[in-house]
């Protein structure tokens, strides 16, 4: 095998490593940046650009993630049975890049904004294009997922085991590095404003940069083409496993009558056609796959950090002093904590637990990981309860709201039905026509001005022009970002500079009273009425839930793969990988089912529901784990190999005896024929 590699691979080595792997590492970094960058802003794109509600945005987001974890099975079969890894990566990367470009184009609002008001007039075009783009991305990213790492491993000869291990470590680092940088950068790009006719949040740029990185990833991979070792497709073990299981089920059904004797295991019904060693290997794999049944519920909770938790962050205060965190940037805590917790767990926590004499088996670690994820959702529910306390109460569909405005200089007493009396101080309000019916989204602040002067008033700021406000009327609401804003107030030749600082998600009505005087102290005459309080629950309160979910991921995911690989035969790793990815896909589909069936009006109740479901599943998994018996696949395979060798020896002995017997009979027949010939001659 080594000689074959050397014949087909140019002898180019840098620092002991094949030069080809540098192209693969750069390719992986760019691809992961592209995927996680696009995914970081996806749920906000659904909510604010396509104007979907929270439930629909969450459902489509998790459908997309589920597809991304279903298509790797298809990619592995195509690569191993038909195209080979190299061609599979090339072709599906092209599909992937087209999908990213389609997403970027779908986010350009000016394409269908015929009236130039900043909102697309043909939303169907944007929805269809984005759905096509997401399907192509799911096909591309999932299809190349099982190929790139394996293709990198193929570049090493057998004597380069140390370099191969280092490559996989660097490869894993590139995955987390690309994820970390993209979840920091793309939310910043989304927060910018861009457009030809009107300036809006720049989702096109947030998707465009990942699209550009995917094109770079493809180009880099193609440039290294002449340096790669390209193994030919050798068939996919998953197909053999499926055929063997299918034959066993069919054969068992065919012999379901009581006339046929029972067999020890239902897979034994495949012995008529398949090798006993393969059947034994499949039994070992099925034993592990049975433990996978409860696992999707963990992923149901884990992947909501990109949907429900991001939407939760939009109603929180992201001001960290000199740094303002965007809601979708909170996801960066996950890769940061992974890079921190993995070495701490492996070198400190697990050895310490072992020293204390506690047998912390892989299945026990996974159980604790599931419990930590449930605890993370309890934290999320508690945070949501705090957020709900700060949210304004708006009238329902059967109710109305009335706002009263006192533009005079004296206090007014207003009598309403049911003996309800309201006292209005000068230049104050108690709820105006054309009012807000929901809290401003994306952390923006809804601001309007009321002109109490007898003359027209022109109000403008660097971001928004409120226009001319006629006497005793108000402007429409305009949305402004958080931070300081300076307004220019002009009436005729007189002007005033008025400065105010806004938080996140507030609403203000700013009164210019009839007693207002222009001049250096004009700001003192302005009255601000806070109608909707700014987000007061800080985003820092989400850090504990991110810490718990990431600690759970390290104990559950890393340990789960390690356990699975230790309990499966060497030629069945791909089958377990497919099964593991399938649990992720099923977990994301469960989010859709719960979101659609439960329809809980309160978000905190939904968080607690998911936590309760995972605790219940955690109990079931712990019982299954208690009765699980650890095995050594190598020993079992060795036993079968020994039995086969003994059977072969027995078969050879029988053959030898048969041949000897035939030879003796042949010699007897030969003597008899000679005697007969002599007698006939005589």
From TrEMBL:
Compositionally biased intervals (Basic and acidic residues): 652-663
Location relative to the cell: Membrane
Listed transmembrane segments: 56-77, 89-111, 123-144, 165-185, 205-229, 284-302, 333-353, 365-387, 574-595, 607-628
Entry keywords, A to Z: Membrane, Peptide transport, Protein transport, Symport, Transmembrane, Transmembrane helix, Transport
Region described as Disordered: 640-682
Superkingdom, taxonomy of origin: Eukaryota
UniProt-listed PROSITE patterns: PTR2_1, PTR2_2
GO biological process, one term: protein transport
Entry similarity comment: Belongs to the major facilitator superfamily. Proton-dependent oligopeptide transporter (POT/PTR) (TC 2.A.17) family.
Protein name listed in UniProt: Solute carrier family 15 member 1a
Originating organism: Oryzias latipes (Japanese rice fish)
């Amino acid at each position: 095998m080594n000689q074959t590699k050397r014949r087909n691979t140019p002898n180019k080595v840098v620092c002991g490593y094949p030069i080809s792997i540098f192209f693969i590492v750069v390719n992986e970094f760019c691809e992961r940046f592209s995927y996680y960058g696009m995914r970081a802003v996806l749920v906000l794109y659904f909510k604010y650009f396509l104007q979907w509600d929270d439930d629909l945005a969450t459902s489509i987001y998790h459908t997309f993630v589920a597809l991304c974890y279903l298509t790797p099975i298809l990619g592995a079969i195509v690569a191993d049975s038909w195209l080979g890894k190299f061609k599979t990566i090339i072709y599906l990367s092209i599909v992937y890049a087209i999908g990213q470009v389609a997403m970027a184009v779908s986010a350009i609002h000016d394409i269908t904004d015929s009236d130039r008001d900043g909102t697309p007039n043909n939303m169907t075009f944007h929805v269809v294009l984005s759905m096509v783009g997401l399907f192509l991305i799911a096909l591309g990213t999932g299809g190349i997922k099982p190929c790139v790492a394996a293709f990198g491993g193929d570049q090493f000869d057998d004597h380069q085991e140390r370099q191969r291990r280092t490559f996989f470590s660097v490869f894993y680092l590139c995955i987390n590095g690309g994820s970390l940088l993209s979840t920091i950068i793309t939310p910043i790009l989304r927060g910018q404003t861009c457009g030809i006719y009107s300036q809006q949040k720049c989702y096109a740029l947030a998707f465009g940069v990942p699209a550009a990185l995917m094109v770079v990833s493809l180009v880099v991979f193609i440039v290294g083409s002449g340096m790669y070792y390209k193994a030919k497709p050798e068939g996919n073990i998953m197909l053999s496993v499926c055929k063997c299981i299918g034959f066993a089920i069919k054969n068992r059904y065919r012999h379901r009558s009581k006339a046929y004797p029972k067999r020890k295991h239902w897979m034994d019904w495949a012995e008529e056609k398949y090798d006993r060693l393969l059947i034994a290997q499949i039994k070992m794999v099925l034993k592990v796959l049975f433990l996978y049944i409860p696992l999707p519920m963990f992923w149901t909770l884990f992947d909501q950090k990109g949907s429900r938790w991001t939407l939760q962050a939009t109603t929180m205060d992201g001001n960290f002093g000199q740094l303002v965190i965007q809601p979708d940037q909170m996801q960066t805590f996950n890769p940061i904590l992974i890079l921190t917790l993995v070495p701490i767990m492996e070198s400190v926590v697990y050895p310490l637990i072992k020293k204390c004499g506690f047998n912390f088996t892989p299945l026990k670690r996974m159980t604790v990981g599931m419990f930590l994820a449930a605890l993370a959702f309890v934290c999320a529910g508690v945070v949501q309860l705090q957020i709900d306390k700060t949210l304004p109460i708006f009238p329902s569909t059967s109710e109305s709201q009335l706002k009263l405005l006192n533009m005079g200089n004296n206090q007014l007493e207003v009598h309403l039905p049911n003996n309800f009396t309201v006292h209005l101080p000068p230049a104050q309000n108690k709820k105006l026509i054309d009012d807000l019916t929901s809290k401003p989204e994306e952390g923006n602040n809804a601001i309007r001005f009321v002109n109490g002067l007898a003359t027209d008033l022109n109000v403008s700021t660097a971001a928004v022009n409120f226009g001319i406000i006629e006497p005793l009327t108000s402007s429409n609401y305009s949305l402004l970002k958080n931070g300081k804003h300076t307004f220019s107030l002009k009436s005729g030749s007189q002007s005033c500079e008025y400065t105010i600082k806004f938080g996140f998600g507030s609403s203000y009505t700013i009164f210019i009273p009839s007693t207002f005087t222009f001049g250096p102290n004009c700001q003192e005459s302005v009255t601000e009425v806070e109608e909707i309080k700014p987000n007061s629950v800080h985003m820092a309160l989400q850090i504990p839930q991110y810490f718990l979910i990431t600690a759970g991921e390290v104990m559950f995911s890393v340990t789960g793969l390690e356990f699975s690989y230790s309990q499966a035969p060497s030629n069945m790793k791909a089958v377990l990988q497919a099964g593991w990815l399938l649990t992720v896909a099923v977990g994301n589909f469960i989010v859709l089912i719960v979101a659609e069936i439960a329809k809980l009006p309160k978000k905190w109740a939904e968080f607690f529901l998911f936590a309760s479901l995972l605790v219940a599943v955690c109990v079931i998994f712990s019982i299954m784990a208690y009765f699980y018996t650890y095995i050594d696949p190598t020993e079992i395979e060795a036993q079968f190999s020994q039995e086969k060798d003994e059977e072969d020896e027995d078969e050879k002995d029988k053959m030898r005896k048969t041949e000897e017997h035939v030879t003796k009979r042949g010699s007897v027949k030969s003597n008899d024929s000679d005697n007969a010939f002599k007698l006939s001659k005589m």
